[in-house]
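Notebook B, p. 112. Complex prediction, attempt 2.
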Amino acid sequence: MRAEPLLRLFPRAWRVRYGEEFLATAGNQSLGTQQVVDIVACAIDAWTSSEVRRAARSVRADLVPEGDPMTKRCMTVCGTAGVEWNRRDALFAAATMIGGSILFSAAGILAKRYVSEVTGQVILGLAFPASLLLSFPFLYLKGKSWRTQLVLVGVPLLVLVAIGILSHYI
Amino acid sequence: MPRRTPENLDDLGRFSEPGLFILISLADGPKHGYAMTLDIETLTGQRLGPGTLYGALARLEARAWIEALPPRDRRRPYRLTKVGKTVLARRLESVRAVADVGRSRLGGAHAS
């Protein structure tokens, strides 16, 4: 067995960061059982170790400007090279923002008419910010765990609802 | 008991030995993965599998003990950082202290 098919066992970020040099190191020759086991164990490790995931997501050194330690440090810490946005993500995010705004607006108008003025105003006020927050998992929060996404979207959403309600009583 | 700090090779768990070999291999200059494998094999008689090598490399890189350089012909060299050199020096010192004690005890045992 060769190393190339085994590379598919690794997370995408890991393949982007280490894949090419890993294949160059493993070589083209057929692998022994021990080496296959070693690579499979490494793949499991790449999925489960937060430290390895962090290294795999770090910015590739060849993309970082030479001789600028501050920029290099910032890009290494903040870099998201392992997570790439594609056309599909952009379309989902745009659809969530536009569709969410329309749905919230419609719900606000209906609530204003059939429930109460306050409820309707709160929902209408939420239309754009809530839709924007709901689009984050497709863009800025892509690659984060579902718990992180839930907290970073859910908490600001609750704060917005609270502000909307309070603004009508203060 | 010595205080464990983040700059300690023992924190790498099962990758602490391969990690030490990699740091030693990079001590005389940058090397790519394959060159490290050969160097470590010459040094220790042990050939690191590509999985173990990259598991250890990723951890050392995450801790900024080594850093990647621009690739040459699909192969990316790595070099020791300042922190990496400190960690390596500390570990080698500790290994030497243990070896000295072991040698002196062995000498005492032979004498008796």
